[in-house]
Amino acid sequence: MPQELISAVEQNWIIGILLFPFLGFLFNGLGWLVLRERFPRKLSNWSACLSIAGSFLFTAAGFYLLTREEPETYYVQKVFSWLSAGEFKADFGLMFDHLSAMMCLTVTLVGLLIHIYATGYMGHDQGYARFFSYMNLFMFMMLTLVLADNLVLLFVGWEGVGLCSYLLIGFWYEDWDKARAGLKAFVVNRIGDFGFLLGIFTLFLYLHTVDFISMRSWLEVHSLEFNHMTIYGIKVATLAGLFLFLGATGKSAQIPLYVWLPDAMAGPTPVSALIHAATMVTAGVYMIGRLSFVYVHSPAALAVVAMVGAITALYAGTIGLTQKDIKRVLAYSTVSQLGYMFLAMGSLAFAAGIFHLFTHAFFKALLFLGAGSVIVGFHHKEQDITRMGGLASSMPWTHRTVFVAFLAIIGIPPLAGFWSKDEILFRSLANANRWVSDYHLNFLLWGVGLAAALVTAVYMTRWMILTFWGKSRADEEVKGHLKESPPSMLIPLGILALGSALAGFLGVPELFGINNWFEHWLEPAFAQAPAVSITLFGKEEYIEVLLMVMAITAGVLGLLIAIAVYINKPGTADRLAEQFPLLYKLSFNKYYVDEIYDWLVVRPLFWGSYYALFRLFDVLVIDGFLNGLASLNAGIGRLLRRVENGAVSTYLFIFVLGVLAVLIYLGVTRF
Amino acid sequence: MSIGVAHFLVLASVLFGLGLLGVLIRRNVIIILMSIELMLNSANMVLVTFSRYLGDTTGQVFALFVMVIAACEVAVGLAIILALFRNKDTLDVDKINIMKW
Asked: Over the stretch A413-423, which tens digit does the pLDDT of each residue have?
């Protein structure tokens, strides 16, 4: 029996992590359905937050238990047998191993803080019970995704979070634009989900199981056999990996399916922070980590993951440079940071990717919640950062906390973002993916990553300057009403600021003589990556230090550029935009990707559906057939009704004829 | 030549034929109604004939029933004719064609 199966310990409390948010969802959902606005706001707030707190406590306790076990040990719980058809079997089974424990901890902690924040942010909204029931449902689905012990259950969570994302983006559905944004997110995600399903089918077809543990232990024994499995000359691992990655590009907003995420900012800000920054969008990264034992068999698929990640990181960053909406800049920043995570996953640095996911959850949630605090300060009337500025004085605590997140994201040591981003850049250069290093793509990946770090620093500094620093450009009328947000919003900001500052110390590289706790913690959850193939001229330590210095330089350089452009010589930005109108317009209009997709996909689909399917097939063929049948009947009736002329004598005559006919018939048959 | 069952049956047939003819070719509604009565009575005659021939009184009982029914029918028929006449001022079936689509 393989090692993995021995170290699985059956537990009965794991379902508790899921149960709390689910009960919260039912409670708030029923409250909304039955009582609407009469459902006490306090009850809604408390039940929603307490359910997440319960979930967090269960996770934390489980995490503590897990730290006291042997490294290979993990907890499982089979809740019930779910699907079973012949060879195919999928249980509602939960797995609490080092990876899902870490992920659950992040999700429940950040989720709890954002729920508390939301009680303040949604303090004046009438749909609070509906909001919290969706939020709790989201937490339930997200935790299902994380804790699932097989691909099918993971897919349930995957779809569930997509549904909640749709519901929450379109939360203010009276506004057509917002409802549309929700729809866009849902439809774009469906394209990815199609790939994800194909990936599941491919894996099941060749591995005959969807269970992670069985898959992994089978692959460990049959590694060679699996490497030789092909479909139409393509390696099964590559094909499955790419299909699943297509799903990940949808959920985690990577090229080419990233277009929904910036629009998703139409939802309430806590939603943007929780779903579209900290948790749901990282599901793709988590999935690759979960299936690392499949991905290690396909350097090609991993190379694609890494390249898409690196390109997305830079590409989304350049769009972020010119956006004006306070949340939209952050949205592109999220896309860019997710690109980093995929870069790490593709470079076989699974722990580094999850580490960035972990730190990013803190500082990006903080940035979004800070932006939400600003929006509340402006009474939801202003989101354009070119019409803000000088908020540092009127919203001191929001500014202070956001400043920490700002330093973290641009990679200033020793804040969280620095450690994780630096680790990713180092691992992308010292790439363990033989396929990448053979073609010397690692230098390219690293270069793009470094450029993205520079761009990140520029647009985040611009964002800070325009929002918080300098003189206020807001309307006089609005300016008078500016005030700091309530404590229910500031306390989560403070805690997240602490996390953004300190979370990075969990993963300090071994270079500093400290054990890289984070990496060691996750080690048993991931497949063994092959040893690094290039040794960086045999001087890894020096190179690592050099890279670290370069990463810091990129961050500081970006910071200085932005300061030079926006503070020292205000107006430089406009002049640059005039000098390079093409570049500016490309960036400002998001490279016209939405328009291109519109022309290439949406319009042809719409026209095809309208003219070919609706006007031609539906109206002419289907309706035509049924209407034709009806008019045929009507025609026959029109002919036959001539017989009914209303004259009694005719009726009588026909009646007699009928009787005669019957009599003759009887006579003929009898004799 | 003694009078047998056949004679009665022939008489009944002739009566029935006359009734049928009256129904088909006469125009007056009252005459049509009377012709129908004629046909009913021919049927009665057949019933009574066979009752006598087979020595079973059931046929005669049935004939009495038919007469009762005929009386009712006439009552209803005449009432309809009365109503019809009030509406149309005519009893000519060729002019009454309201049973039309």
From this structure: 889 999 999 98
Answer whether A231's CB lies under 8 Å from A202's CB.
Answer: yes
User: Which chain B residues are closer than 8 Å to A647 by Cβ?
Assistant: 93-94, 96-97
Closest of A565, A320, A536, A356 to residue A437, by C-alpha:
A536
The yes/no answer to whether this complex scores an ipTM above 0.90 is no
Burial class (CB in 10 A: 0-12, 13-18, 19+), A23: middle
Low-confidence ranges of chain A (pLDDT < 50): 1-5
Compute φ and ψ for A123, nearest 5 degrees. Answer: -60, -20
Spatial distance between the Cα atoms of A55 and A104, rounded to a whole number of angstroms: 9
Neighbouring CB atoms inside 10 A of A462's CB total 23
B101 to A648: CB separation less than 8 angstroms, yes or no: no
Distance between the two ends of chain B, CA-based, in angstroms?
56
For A650, which residue in chain B has the nearest alpha carbon? B24
* Contact (CB, 8 A) for A276 and A246: no
Query: How far apart are the C-alpha atoms of A48 and A455, rounded to whole Å?
Result: 38
**Domain range summary for chain B, segments of one domain joined by +:** 5-95
Q: Closest-CA residue in chain A for B94?
A: A647
Place of tokens 């400290």: A514
Residues of B in contact with A656 (CB under 8 A): 20, 23-24
* Residue carrying structure tokens 């088909």: B24
CA distance A207 to A293: 13
DSSP 8-state assignment for residue A82:
E
Q: pLDDT tens per residue, chain B (101 residues)?
A: 688 889 999 999 999 999 999 988 888 999 999 999 999 999 999 999 999 999 999 999 999 999 999 999 999 999 999 998 998 888 888 888 776 65
Q: In CATH, what class is B5-95?
A: mainly alpha
Structure tokens at A452: 């993205």
